[in-house]
Amino acid sequence: MSRIGKKPIEIPAGVKVALAGAEIKVEGPKGKLSRTIHPDVSVEVGADMITVARPEGNTALQGMTRSLISNMVDGVTNGFTKILEINGVGYRAELQGKTLNLSLGYSHPIAYPLPVGIDAEVEKQTKIFVRGIDKELVGATAAKIRSFREPEPYKGKGVKYEDERIIRKAGKAGKK
Fold it and tell me: Which domains does the chain have, with CATH numbers?
């Protein structure tokens, strides 16, 4: 049984939710989001609650749909943030307009244009804040930035999430 899918979603003050056919639109103080809902799931929008119902036996689809709608409501009210840290001598980041310039130890700098709907902020050239209202897009953008130089296990150099723990390996053992 889906426990998450059964929970109703509260609509905070200042957020408008509209359901038109198979598309749900959420509008709040930070922006607008819309998503197409799977035809097997039925969504009911009340005055201050959203409920998700399912056909017989498909609990995973109900829980996923409820989580997606809940993330949309959270995104237009609070927004989402992922924090990345850069470790390594000479590794740095710089923001120029909507382009993130990264120096990550390669022979060339990396210029990454930020997607529409994503804002970034660089602090002390080693900390990147990725912000937006779409949780999926924020996570995908942070993962893309991390993929340019993933942290290596010997010295921990690279781009990592703030709360990520790098498991270190021992280096070469000396000759006997």
Answer: 3-77 (3.90.930.12), 80-161 (3.90.930.12)
